[in-house]
Design a protein that fits this description.
Number of domains: 1
Shape: globular
CATH topology: TIM Barrel
CATH class: Alpha Beta
Strand content: 15-25%
CATH architecture: Alpha-Beta Barrel
Order of helices and strands: EEEHEHEHEHHEHEHEEEEEEHHH
Distance between the termini: 27 Å
Number of helices: 10
Bound molecules: S-adenosylmethionine, iron/sulfur cluster
Radius of gyration: 19 Å
Structural class: alpha/beta
Largest sheet: 12 strands, mixed
């Protein structure tokens, strides 16, 4: 039975960060040296994640997404997928990945029960890709997307964070991919993190509103018509260019927050339940789990989290999230 929070929002979605480590160092997400490594025993074991997912499913949470850090960088990730796919009540199991290792794992993930992937990709230019990610190869991600498509992990959504002076000049080239290659693309407004201020860049002025991206696309490629995605629409608003097979979505945490429709809880890799991406309130699940808590006791903590979920974030009032970077929460 679906549970509702204090603001009448159905809470049916759990995002699970399985690691805060990553094989890339995107300039807007991680410091060049990566995040300080947590001791191995601080990170939830797969059996512990499974208990939390069982408790969540019992409360009507039927959508689960694995994220990170980079989920494919955690050893044996397909084993976790297999365990989660078997939980009664979870009918939508997906992953957000940078795609670098996707070509290697796509078939194994499908066999384990993964249904869909979102791949993060901010540029179509190899040199720029290397600069943004500080170490990645664009070709690996493109191969990963192709492998995911062949394996049936669809619809694949491509997530692009737009940052002024970094990749805002590529919006039209990226939008063309919805026509030429049927991509389902989502432009995400960058949520500035002061701790990661880009060198030589005024973070207040680097965000690009979705309305600006949309205007650029329409001026070059035609009017966007409202569209629907067959699965996993999330907080994006979707459109289609004339004649395009793929869609263009906009995710607007800054210019038009979608807190009124927020349906999710987030679990960090070290076992803290976050009530909102952009608020530091957390409920510790790791300690009770390691003291032997049952699925029922974890359910009670999930219910507490649902009851305490804040109404909205306050990023527009320059409230900072200080405790963790995006890579530690999972985006
Ligand atoms: N490593 C995986 C990936 O890159 O897809 C999963 C984790 S990553 C933190 C999840 C998403 O958060 C990515 O699409 C990334 O672009 C996005 N992200 C990271 N930092 C962000 C920020 N400051 N503002 C907006 N999106 C951000
Ligand atoms: Fe890693 Fe994803 Fe953050 Fe890039 S956005 S550094 S791939 S966690």
């Amino acid at each position: 039975m679906t549970r509702f929070d204090a603001y009448h929002r159905p809470i049916n979605y759990l995002r699970i960060s399985v690691t805060d480590r990553c094989n890339l160092r995107c300039i807007y997400c991680m410091p060049p040296e990566g995040v300080p490594s947590r001791a191995h025993d601080e990170i939830l074991r797969y059996e512990e994640i499974e208990i939390i997912a069982r408790a969540a499913a019992g409360l009507g949470i039927h959508k689960v997404r694995l994220t990170g850090g980079e989920p494919l960088a955690r050893l044996g990730i397909a084993d976790l997928v297999r365990a989660l796919a078997r939980i009664p009540g979870i009918d939508d199991l997906s992953m957000t990945t940078n795609g670098v290792l996707l070509a290697r794992y796509a078939d194994e993930l499908v066999a384990a029960g993964l249904q869909r992937v979102n791949v993060s990709l901010d540029t179509l230019r190899p040199a720029r890709f290397a600069a943004i990610t500080r170490r990645g190869r664009l070709a690996d991600v493109l191969l990963g997307i192709e492998a995911a498509r062949r394996a049936g992990l669809e619809p694949i959504k491509i997530n692009t964070v737009v940052i002024r002076g970094i990749n805002d000049d590529e919006v039209i080239d990226l939008a063309r991919k919805t026509m030429d290659d049927g991509w389902n693309l989502r432009f995400i407004e960058w949520m500035p993190e002061r701790t990661l201020a880009l060198e030589g860049v005024d973070w207040c002025e680097q965000t690009v509103a979705a309305s600006e991206v949309r205007a650029q696309i329409e001026a070059a490629l035609g009017t966007l018509e409202p569209a629907k995605l067959s699965a996993g629409a999330g907080p994006a608003r979707y459109y289609r260019l004339p004649g395009a097979k793929g869609t263009i979505g906009f995710i607007t945490p800054i210019s038009e927050h979608f807190c009124g429709e927020c349906n999710r809880l987030r679990l960090t890799a070290d076992g803290q339940l976050r009530l909102c991406l952009l608020s530091d309130q957390e409920i510790d699940l790791r300690t009770p789990l390691r003291q032997g808590a049952s699925v029922e006791q974890i359910s009670a903590l999930l219910l507490e989290a649902i009851a305490r979920k804040p109404q909205r974030h306050h990023l527009d009032e320059r409230q900072d999230v200080e405790k963790r970077t995006m890579a530690q929460i999972g985006g």
